[in-house]
Amino acid sequence: MKELSLPLRFGLVTSAVLIAYFLVLALFHRHTNPVFSFFNAVITAFGIFEAIRVYKLQNGETFTYADGFKTGLITGGVATILFTVFFLLYATEINTEFIPELLATIKGGFDTNVGMITAVVAIMGFATTVVSTLTVMQLFKNSKNMRSK
Fold first, then answer.
1. CA 143 to CA 14: how far, in whole Å?
2. What is the pLDDT along the chain (149 residues), one digit of tens a residue?
3. Distance (Å) of CA 140 to CA 26, 117, 135
4. Nearest-angstrom CA–CA distance, 113 and 78
5. Contact between 17 and 47 (Cβ < 8 Å)
6. Cα–Cα distance list, 70 to 4, 16, 94 (Å)
7. Closest Cα to residue 137, out of 37, 39, 38, 66?
8. Which long-range contacts does 22-26 make (Cβ < 8 Å, 24+ apart)?
């Protein structure tokens, strides 16, 4: 359980930042513009980066690529699940006009519903988690290069 506490904490904080960012966008009526969701990837990547950095600091020489990768996936997974639940609650309970406004902004003529949009949000979050974890681990992996004299 101790191994899970760090990524769970960072996942909770990352999801809180994602939710806060979404609500700030909603204050300015920008939450229906999908372009602003690209910053979600930056927030998620930073949360994963910090979780792996702290994990590596705590474990020092015993840090492995697999441990760091697992930490990143759990952090991003927790953040994605919590943000997706918030998104679903927001779209169905808080602002029921959100999905029609979002679809009007996209102008794709899509015939979709809240469930499909929520699934897309979750898939994008998990994809961002995997890509961000792979990217961040390049910074933290132990090098096998030999030092020249």
1. 28
2. 567 889 999 999 999 999 999 999 999 988 888 888 899 999 999 999 999 999 999 988 888 889 999 999 999 999 999 999 999 999 999 988 888 888 887 766 677 888 888 999 999 999 999 999 999 999 887 766 666 65
3. 36, 34, 10
4. 24
5. yes
6. 10, 21, 34
7. 66
8. 22/83, 22/86, 22/87, 22/90, 26/95
- Given a contact cutoff of 8 angstroms between Cβ atoms, the answer to whether 6 and 71 are in contact is yes
Upper half-sphere CA count for residue 125 (Cβ side, 13 Å): 25
**Which among 67, 65, 18, 26 is positioned nearest to 45, based on CA atoms?**
18
- Residue 64 to residue 76: CA distance in whole angstroms: 19
